[in-house]
Amino acid sequence: MFAILGDIEFTVAGGISGLEQSGTADWAEHARIQGKPLLEWIGEGLDACNLTMVLHPMLGDPEERLRALRQAKSKHEPLAFVMGSGEYLGAYVITDISNTMRRGTAVGQIAAATVQVSLKEYTGAFNRRVLRPGLLDPALSGTAAAAMGSPGLISKLTPPASPTQMAIAHAKTVGNVLRAGKNVYDSVKSGNPSMILGQVPQLLSITARAIEPLQGFKLAAGLLDDGADLSRLSDNVLGSVMGSRSSLNPVDLGNIADRFASSRESLGQAATTLNSASARLAGLAAQVLTRRA
């Protein structure tokens, strides 16, 4: 399997032929007297993905598969996007679907087509629907794709979110927050004490955003049979985050340089600790992908 988006499974045998990923960063431009404008990093932009797939009767009913994609778009719901390697990319929404008919029947039905599916990262609250596990989509019954064991789509019925899925989702959120925080720290580290002091509220706000998902990560890890190591990891990361925050409270012009350096070091340690579990988290994602967790 190449990837799975919500309940829609993409396989190479099922027609998937390409994936294009892009990410942006938002920068504000400030005019300066007698000098070039100054750029200030505001935040990370939303990631985007473009999937290319081929529809053909040998891979399932083209009309049914295209209809399933359009229905998923029309529901306006975020969907979990996981690669076949087990890497959880996060929640995405379908923003655009376009298809080019390559061959049609005498009555205008699709015999072969190329489909482009555009996805955009969703950063709001995301909970998978609580439904019972499903079977293969009846629309694929009797097709060559189903016979080969490589259906292009599975049923829309999905299981409730498991502790493993919750742990992965919280870890993903924490990682995004820590990366955003590190970018802010790096962007202000060369400023003068007065400028750094003015950024303290923003730095405290960013680190505060990591606390709740870290607590959720610890809770989810505690529900896993083998989650003791992840529970300890969450404590260590949270300790570093809280250390980063305490270094900035209180601060003044006399101590801001040393306090900022200490806070930045603690945040970097939090990111390093979380990154040390990347292989472990990828293993959990693989369990989710193969329906074992």
List the helices and strands and how they pair.
Layout: E1 3-5, E2 8-10, E3 16-22, E4 25-32, E5 35-44, E6 48-55, H1 62-74, E7 79-83, E8 88-104, E9 110-121, H2 144-147, H3 163-188, H4 193-198, H5 200-208, H6 211-222, H7 228-246, H8 256-275, H9 278-289
Antiparallel strand pairs: 1-2, 1-7, 3-6, 4-5, 6-9, 7-8, 8-9
Summarize this structure briefly:
The chain has 293 residues and is α+β, with helices and mostly antiparallel strands. 41% of the residues lie in helices and 25% in strands.
Structural description of this entry:
Pfam families: Phage_P2_GpU. InterPro entries: Myoviridae_GpU (IPR009734). This is Phage tail protein. With 293 residues, this protein is α+β, with helices and mostly antiparallel strands. The protein folds into two domains: 145 residues, Elongation Factor Tu (Ef-tu), domain 3; 127 residues, Four Helix Bundle (Hemerythrin (Met), subunit A) (Up-down Bundle), CATH 1.20.120. It is built from nine helices and nine strands. Strands 2-1-7-8-9-6-3 form a seven-stranded antiparallel sheet. Strands 4-5 form a two-stranded antiparallel ribbon. α3 runs antiparallel to α9. The protein is flat and about 80 Å long. About 11% of the residues have low confidence.
